[in-house]
Design a protein that fits this description.
heterodimer, A: alpha/beta, Peroxisomal Thiolase, Chain A, domain 1, nine-stranded mixed β-sheet, two-stranded antiparallel ribbon, 37% helix, 18% strand, B: five-stranded antiparallel β-sheet, 9 strands, extended
Chain lengths: 386, 155
């Protein structure tokens, strides 16, 4: 397998309701990503498109629909899919394109336009539940997160207030992100007093419904050396799927994330992730999920993520900055685009190009992770600069 | 051979009826907004041109999917055009038989490189290569949709 590098990234604003069509959003991000590394569409050999359920945009062939804006005209195009995990699965898939030797330049584009879906994307989420056993109960997606959050809190003795610190941190970090539509300075009290969605999940524990697009450019080592002074290498990839039936697994601990992380660590030669990984972008659609995922990623002991958060370890200036971008809670959550935004953030952090979001200490190794489907898939990439 | 081959009516089985409880509101986008406002306000068709690829897109696009250039050269096309394919549909959107068969065509508006799909009426025996013109709703009735064009007919 050949070495693969990220050499460019682009991102639209994240918005509650975009006027742009999906292909227009995709083009804004994709053309920015190419321009950032001095490449043109003529240089692109293949295209990988990531986008979550077709029902959001209301288009049944969303990959093909987005392709003109994603640079897919007349090119080999594929669309890997793993629900919310798609944003990190798509660069993994693009890695195959380049590492295999088949293509030298792969344009990776993720888009989501959730505002198309009325009255609410919840109506599209409902079919991820079991049609026979659960849909007759009229489930709301947040049910499963509320129940999983309770399993997590009960197993490790974690309080709501401790979990709320994640929202406080990420929404504050998001204030420094030009793409944000949900950043704000809030307190634990604000989170606790915000509207109860499905207890114990309050409104400020939840990322928003968003529109937006993200793109990165993956290239072979030869191309990377030729066009870039500071390519960011994809050193490890991992992905893993747990049982489809969410009541058949350990909800307190995301073992599928651990398996994905172990796969990526082995490939990247990471033996002590807590010492070797300098900056982390775990998937944070809900406040407790950042904690849950840090544990699954083996970046702290089980049940200890709340403590390291309270101790400031995960702040931008802490020992292990977590979601310095602001994450889904602080920037927004156009599903697949949000996952790829996390990969783009690690790219910018490792190149020292994250501006006001830059973590100190010249990080060398970073990790991005996403999660999704009926909360049973983990997708991980480990990235490094020389 | 599956046992289900013996089942004539799935309604005889235990089943839970379900539907996707969603509808969609599709924004027309940056280029689409301009196209449909021009159609609504002035009854004109706008394409956008990529000079590098020498291609006039219809409906217009803010970018060229061939070369990724940003496009800002707007060009009036039509209103007349040439039929490139024509068909008559006897079945409708839900698969049932239409009371009145409907004729549809792919039309190349003058000056555009792409084709537009629309209904054809008042044009007995229309063939490929025929010249057609749009019949628009009156200005107060137009709302900025493709249905502001009632149909095309032979000229």
């Amino acid at each position: 397998m050949r070495k693969v590098a990220v050499v460019g990234a682009g991102l639209t604003r994240f918005m509650r309701r975009a006027q742009e069509t999906g292909p227009e959003l995709a083009w804004l991000a994709a053309s920015q990503a190419l321009e950032s590394c001095g490449l043109g569409l003529k240089d692109v050999d293949s295209v990988a498109i990531g986008t979550a359920p077709d029902a959001f945009d209301g288009v049944h062939m969303k990959g093909e629909y987005l392709a003109p804006g994603a640079g897919g005209w007349g090119r080999p195009v594929t669309r890997p899919y793993a629900g919310g995990g798609t944003g990190v699965l798509v660069p993994i898939h693009a890695w195959f394109n380049v590492a295999s030797g088949l293509f030298d330049v792969c344009l990776v584009v993720a888009e989501e336009k959730m505002s198309t879906c009325h009255p609410h994307p919840q109506g599209a989420f409902v079919t991820i539940f079991d049609n026979i056993l659960e849909r007759p109960l009229e489930p709301n997606l947040i049910w499963i997160f509320a129940l999983e959050m309770q399993r997590y809190m009960d197993t490790y003795g974690i309080t709501k207030e401790e979990i709320a610190l994640v929202s406080v941190k990420n929404k504050r970090n998001g204030l420094d992100h030009p793409s944000t539509h949900v950043a704000e300075e809030i307190t634990v009290k604000d989170v606790m007093e915000s509207e109860v969605m499905v207890s114990p999940v309050n409104r400020l524990d939840v990322s928003p419904v968003s529109d937006g697009a993200a793109a990165i450019v993956l290239v072979s080592e030869d191309v990377a050396r030729r066009i870039s002074d500071n390519p960011v290498w994809i050193d490890g990839i991992g992905w893993n799927l747990d049982t489809a039936y969410w009541t058949n697994r350990d909800l307190a601990y995301p073992s599928y994330v651990e398996r994905a992380a172990r796969m990526a660590y082995k490939m990247a030669g990471i033996t002590e992730p807590r010492k070797q990984i300098n900056v982390v972008e775990p998937y944070d659609p809900f406040s407790y999920k950042e904690l849950h995922h840090l544990e699954g990623l083996l970046l702290c002991d089980k049940g200890q993520a709340a403590k390291i958060t309270a101790d400031g370890v995960t702040q931008r200036n802490g020992d292990m900055p977590v979601s310095p971008s602001g994450g889904l809670l602080g920037v927004g959550n156009p599903i697949a685009a949000a996952g790829l935004m996390k990969v783009a953030e690690i790219f910018w952090q490792l190149r020292g190009e994250a501006g006001r979001r830059q973590v100190p200490g010249q990080p060398k190794v970073g990790l991005a992770q996403a999660w999704g489907d009926l909360m049973q898939v983990g997708t991980v990439v480990v990235m490094r600069v020389d | 051979m599956g046992s289900s081959e013996q089942i004539d009516r799935v309604t005889d089985l235990r089943a839970w009826p379900g539907e996707f409880p969603v509808s969609h509101l599709y924004t027309m986008g940056i280029a689409g907004e301009r196209f449909f406002r021009e159609l609504k306000d002035n009854g004109r068709f706008l394409g956008s041109r990529c000079a590098a690829c020498d291609h006039v897109y219809l409906p217009p696009s803010i970018f060229c999917p061939r070369c990724f250039a940003a496009l800002d050269e707007w060009k009036e096309v039509g209103p007349q055009g040439t039929v490139r394919a024509v068909t008559t549909a006897h079945r409708g959107v839900d698969g049932t038989t239409l009371k009145t068969p409907e004729t549809l065509a792919l039309i190349q508006l003058d000056g555009a490189d792409d084709l537009l799909t629309h209904r054809i009426k008042e044009s007995e025996g229309l063939e490929i290569g025929a010249r057609v013109a749009p019949v628009l709703k009156e200005t107060p009735e137009r709302e900025g949709s493709i249905l502001d064009v009632r149909y095309f007919r032979a000229v």
